[in-house]
């Protein structure tokens, strides 16, 4: 099955929600944990232990595992395995972007069947040029994995680049969206998704023709709300995968608190 097919099946069963697993110091302290490898492991794997069979998608933020060096990466490997075992999908938030030959290395690191850090999907930056992503796009198609390309990010600074106009009058983020849509139409796999933040009253882009998943970070701690999504995305709401990290994690460490946050975001 392709990533798009697995995502559709799971979100129909569990609801369209991505829970981010971001073990930064503030969240570890909230759980009464130290900002070390033991704290990282207890937090990250603890979230999946409680929510693994309830939530469709988990999104570990690679930065917070990399902080702890090889021991942190080993925790990330175990976490990705936990997510697989729970029957959920993983989106590894790595936001890589580089020239094509280096992108081939990143593709092997995260999208190959034999990679120890393999995830169901990853985030990539197309801002070295959309075609620089080609090795990752090709490998994702080959292995049935997905890629979320940064289009219109949730942070206030993003518009400086993403909303600047190209020669044809389209803003840069719109060019990314149109290129991703064309690639999906060509492959028929819809392996390419977009990242569009849920924090903008007007995102300044048109996703009405898009044909893949749209990951929507920024829900909760950054001010985005589930209720506000229709106003931003219109009829494309069916494509959305809203994502919340601190908003869910800070319901923990109690089981009830975590489950309650998820149920609220799912409108249950
Ligand atoms: O545009 C983007 C792309 C990615 N992110 C990442 O999502 C989480 C957000 O965490 P919250 O605690 O839910 O605010 C974090 O890992 C970001 O790096 C994003 O926020 N915006």
TrEMBL record:
GO terms for molecular function: orotidine-5'-phosphate decarboxylase activity. This is Orotidine-5'-phosphate decarboxylase. Its EC number is 4.1.1.23. Keywords: Decarboxylase, Lyase, Pyrimidine biosynthesis. It is an enzyme of class 4 (lyase). It comes from the Bacteria. Pfam families: OMPdecase. The keyword Zinc does not apply. The keyword Transferase does not apply. Residues 16-261 form the Orotidine 5'-phosphate decarboxylase domain. CDD domains: OMP_decarboxylase_like. It comes from Luteococcus sanguinis. It catalyses: orotidine 5'-phosphate + H(+) = UMP + CO2. Pathway: Pyrimidine metabolism; UMP biosynthesis via de novo pathway; UMP from orotate: step 2/2. InterPro entries: Aldolase_TIM, OMPdecase_type-2, OMPdeCOase_dom, RibuloseP-bd_barrel. Belongs to the OMP decarboxylase family. Type 2 subfamily.
